[in-house]
Write a structure and sequence with these properties.
Blueprint (H helix, E strand, L loop, with lengths): L1 H6 L3 H13 L2 H8 L3 H15 L4 E4 L2 E4 L1 H29 L3 E5 L1 H8 L3 H7 L5 E5 L13 E7 L7 E14 H6 L8 H4 L6 E2 L9 H7 L12 E2 L2 H10 L4 E5 L3 H6 L2 E3 L4 E12 L5 H16 L5
Parallel strand pairs: 3-4, 3-5, 7-8
Antiparallel strand pairs: 1-2, 5-11, 6-9, 6-10, 6-11
Length: 306
């Protein structure tokens, strides 16, 4: 234990680093953690000194993860997620009446987790156990009370309400947009020949680049993907690092668009009858369904409310 403590950097610094990497900025991390921006900067500098690498590229009040930073962020994010899952399971055993919430990794990590305490308060202080179910086979309604699922109306049973239509646009990181401003003038047809970041949809109903091009009115299809990523947060990390152009789903990317850390390089397209759905189990108490649904609708309409 002593040896591990000496090998690891400050856990506070790692928590600050995880938030800054996930949110794409020091000021946004400061707001989430309720500390000052200079405090965030001190933690990051101390962590960089501890690991011997620059973790962020800084320019014009914006930050993006370097390659070593991305490697560390993925490890820290996964580690904190594992810790949170164990803590949740212990709370379930201790407290009993815990509300089980399930969603996809993209929605969970990029939109829900920073707001989870607000949902808990809306549910009268109930404890929440959050689980990630990326593949359709994992999304078993007998295993959760409420959830947010991405898909079509046809995928759902009777207990489903549309929260937001599936709205998708191509985006790049701000550094790539500044280095190559011609990207902002590309037409949808031009994007076929660009460096595209693909996601391995597997049995998940995520929109593919081929589907986006069809909905954008482009007849050509992109060449086969050289690399596919199986995790939406990884796609956005690659976008932020300047690897290429990725598809961004709203509302997951709304705050990043607003802050300017990512930039749209093509039009939004909407897939009819697809989107983000609030779902619940037959066993879930009606008051929990009503409170949670009202909270999701309010936060999606006013994301800055937290």
């Amino acid at each position: 234990m002593v040896e591990m403590r000496h090998r690891l950097p400050s856990l506070n610094a790692l928590a600050v680093f995880e938030a800054a990497g996930r949110l794409g900025g020091f000021s946004r991390a400061a707001r989430e953690l309720r500390i000052s921006q200079p405090a965030v900067t001190r933690h990051i500098r101390g962590l960089e000194a501890a690991v011997g690498h620059l973790l962020f590229q800084r320019a014009h009040n914006r930050v993006t993860l370097t390659e070593p930073g991305l490697r560390l962020w993925q490890a820290v994010n996964a580690g904190f997620g594992d810790i949170a899952a164990v803590v949740d399971s212990l709370r379930v055993a201790e407290e009993g009446a815990v509300l089980a919430l399930s969603t996809h990794s993209g929605f969970g990590q990029q939109w829900l987790m920073p707001r989870l305490e607000g949902l808990r308060e809306a549910l009268g202080g109930r404890s929440i156990s959050l689980s990630i179910a990326d593949r359709s086979a994992e999304f078993d309604r007998t295993e959760f009370d409420i959830g947010v699922r991405h898909g079509s109306r046809a995928d759902l049973g009777p207990n489903g309400v549309l929260l937001a239509e599936e709205t998708v646009m191509p985006v790049v990181g701000w550094r790539l947009a500044e280095a190559r401003p011609e990207l902002l003038a590309l037409t949808p047809d031009d994007l076929v020949d660009a460096t595209l970041i693909h996601m391995d949809e597997g049995d998940r109903p995520w929109m593919t680049w081929a589907q986006w091009f069809r909905l954008a009115g482009v007849r050509r299809t992109p060449p086969p993907a050289r690399v596919r990523l199986n995790h939406y947060p990884l796609v956005m990390s690659e976008v932020l690092s300047g690897t290429g152009i990725g598809l961004g789903w709203r509302p997951l990317i709304d705050e990043m668009l607003e802050s300017g850390v990512i930039v749209p390089v093509g039009p939004e397209v909407v897939r009819s009858d697809w989107g983000w759905w609030f779902v619940w189990s037959d066993r879930t108490a009606p008051q929990d369904v009503e409170r949670a649904l009202a909270w999701f609708r309010s936060r999606l309409a006013h994301p800055s409310a937290g």
